[in-house]
Amino acid sequence: MEYLKITGGQELNGEVIISGAKNAALPLIAATILAKNEVSICNLPDVVDINTLLKLLDKLGGKFTKCVDCIKIDTSKLNNTTATYDIVKTMRASILVLGPILARFGHCEVSLPGGCAIGQRPVDLHLKALEAMGAQININHGYIEATAPNGLKGTKIVFDKVTVGGTENTVMAAALADGVTTIINAAKEPEVQQLCEVINNSGVKIEGIGTSTLVIHGSNKELLHMKDFDVIPDRIEAGTYMCAAAITNSKLKICKVLPEHLEAIIAKLKEMSFEIIQDENSVTVMPTKEIKPVNIITSEYPGFPTDMQAQFMALATQANGTSTIDERLFENRFMHVSELLRLGADIHLNGNIATINGTKGQLNGTDVMATDLRASSALVLSALVAKGETSIHRIYHLDRGYEDLEGKLNKIGANVARYKE
């Protein structure tokens, strides 16, 4: 097992190039199951989660070839409809093959998913949507067994709550369904938007992209001719490096981003008195005389992303005053707090609200343990300003979602090294 050792107190400077979005790439890879042709996907991040899904695609009978940050995927000879536990247990996003396999073959078996333990993220909304489209679903021995011998039928689906994965699975299933499917209360995240745009460009008309109501005109089981495309930039990686600049009070340019995807993050950094200079494909964080406290409530896009609250909690430890973070989406996403306390942070929890006192002294390096993907990045950010050395263990969480983290940090002046336990 590997760990990171970070020596704090280094000023950052220069530029960081952001990779493709993991959370966009995963459903897009799953969507190639709907294609009858070879598809080239570029700007693909080299992270563990992507490689896990590609391994699953290979087990299903798909073929792929890699070239730098591009990949060619051919699922025309797909012949296996079972996604086994040995792969699905490591990553929740594996559930995204459920919709497209069922739509294409009329049956599938997909293991119930694993992934970060950040609270209950049930797949019941996925299953209810597919049942509304005519699927028969049973759960046996930890597997979702789904059949639709007469094919999926277009219908109206109303989600009780916003679900990104549920929206993505339903959109992919609806693409091959017979008739029109309308999704009410659909997720509006940029990653969902790109999935819809790619399918729309493949000949399946989708109306309402970027809104909470999607209308998908299904192809009635006719496979799609999918065009080549580039994955959008990773807004969460971009936000993490923006927080790295802010917590070290450094000037840093974040390149190859879409600033419109970062509006909620930019707004909160401005509240904390940082000047943000925006260009067409970059944002630059400028240092400030005083980091001000902030109050954050997580919500669905375009609100403040839950995937950024841990990073802002780390940043709030350096603010001159008391900040609060109200986590509204997941009930168990404050597991990083105990590790931040080990570093010397002053944080108090009351249910789903964290209070961070940023005036109680400097953080000090120590040994900490990553508990999930975004919590890991909060520990990295804290280590950048902690006095002395911090060792971050169980960094396989980090490797699931950040491409070459230590390489990118070292290029901008950090002192980060990877070791084996």
UniProtKB/TrEMBL annotation:
Molecular function GO terms recorded: UDP-N-acetylglucosamine 1-carboxyvinyltransferase activity
**InterPro entries recorded:** Enolpyruvate_Tfrase_dom (IPR001986), Enolpyruvate_Tfrase_sf (IPR036968), MurA_subfamily (IPR050068), RNA3'P_cycl/enolpyr_Trfase_a/b (IPR013792), UDP_GlcNAc_COvinyl_MurA (IPR005750)
**Pathway membership, UniProt:** Cell wall biogenesis; peptidoglycan biosynthesis
Supply the SUPFAM superfamilies for this chain. EPT/RTPC-like (SSF55205)
Sites of 2-(S-cysteinyl)pyruvic acid O-phosphothioketal modification: C116
Q: Which GO terms describe its cellular component?
A: cytoplasm
Query: Which cellular compartments is it found in?
Result: Cytoplasm
Q: What is its EC number?
A: 2.5.1.7
Q: What does this protein do?
A: Cell wall formation. Adds enolpyruvyl to UDP-N-acetylglucosamine.
Q: Which HAMAP family match?
A: MurA (MF_00111)
What is the recorded name of this protein?
UDP-N-acetylglucosamine 1-carboxyvinyltransferase
Organism of this sequence: Halarcobacter ebronensis
